[in-house]
Write a structure and sequence with these properties.
Length: 49
């Protein structure tokens, strides 16, 4: 069973993306490098609550 999580940019704190986490990944926070349309560049996005 997967859980829906929201990803936020580390630089501007804009919440841009949603993704799913599996039951095995629930203990760790996601850190994914994605394009932020607000900043206009690739930045690290982290899981938010």
């Amino acid at each position: 069973m997967s859980q829906k999580v929201i990803l936020a940019c580390e630089e501007c704190k804009s919440r841009n993306y949603t993704t799913n986490k599996t039951a095995q990944d629930r203990m760790n926070r996601l850190h994914i490098k994605k394009f932020c349309s607000t900043c206009g560049k690739h930045t690290v996005h982290v899981e938010t609550k």
